[in-house]
Design a protein that fits this description.
Length: 323
Amino acid sequence: MLPRSILAGCGGYLPERIVTNDELSRTVDTSDEWIRDRTGIRQRHFASKHETTAFMGTAAARAALADAGATAADVDAIILATSTPDQAFPATALRVQAELGVTKGFGFDLSAACAGFIYGLSVADGMIRSGQARGVLVIGSEVYSRILNWQDRGTCVLFGDGAGAVFVRAANAEDDDRRGVLSTHIHAQGTLGDILYVDGAVGQPDKPGHLVMHGREVFRHAVTRLAEAVEEALAANGMTHADIDWLVPHQANRRIIDAMGKKLGLPPERVVVTVDRHANTSAASVPLALAEARADGRIKSGDLVLLEALGGGLTWGSALVRL
Ligand code: COA
């Protein structure tokens, strides 16, 4: 029988520098009140020069391996989800591979914006189930502060930097057979590419690119698509809302998170929220939130956790995991 994959450990890294809404409002025409009311964000972390995507991804990966009781020798593959790679190539995943001292297997970067971690987990799960890999690091690492347009107050107040990671491994004989990644579902709709995008890239002369977002439209799609993704995950597993112990949603906006929690009938204390302190860290947001709730003891082994995210592309998806 082919193995299931077990989410064996998680970890995160946040840059040292914290920037509050009040600090931001000294240089941007905004206010703490507006940002809090519309998004729930109070502060975010911004990377300094040495805190690159690879640096933060490596720190998060080390923490995930330590949490799993694993070492670099257990890693066959590294999937790093990011929209802000350090270089066009080599893949940031391979900078992490070198830093960790992993000397076998393969690695690559994955571009699916804020849904990148869910995409990465889906790919890792497929590789483990097919026997292509036995131990996979899935990392989300982002430095959005380097692609924000500081003249656009509608977007620059919403994002932060950071990294989160999980170590996923093939189940072995000692594992409880109810444990593991039960399902992943990923989706995309390229026709909606112009509601949230970066208007440049390394390949475009003199245009490194800034983030552009039509917030209201993204909001509308987020609420609909994420609700569908949740129902799809539950139906695929023959489960209902009542089976879910924890929702770990993408951390873009408190109002979207609250709406999802309500739809699932979950009390607020069963929904992990970090957007108030981290803002939107894109591909890093779900693994960072998961790592926080694991580390402080809220999410326990055996709990059923629903992960979901939506991002530019549009991309979206869900994962149902028993820890
Ligand atoms: N500070 C103060 N005022 C601001 C502001 C800021 N940072 N940003 C925008 N405003 C103003 C606008 O200029 C506008 O003023 P006007 O009515 O005088 O023209 C007003 O606030 C409303 O702007 P709008 O963009 O329509 O606000 P909104 O209610 O749609 O909220 C978002 C904006 C971004 C918070 C909201 O659309 C959202 O959360 N969208 C989804 C974002 C998301 O999930 N993205 C990530 C997916 S990965």
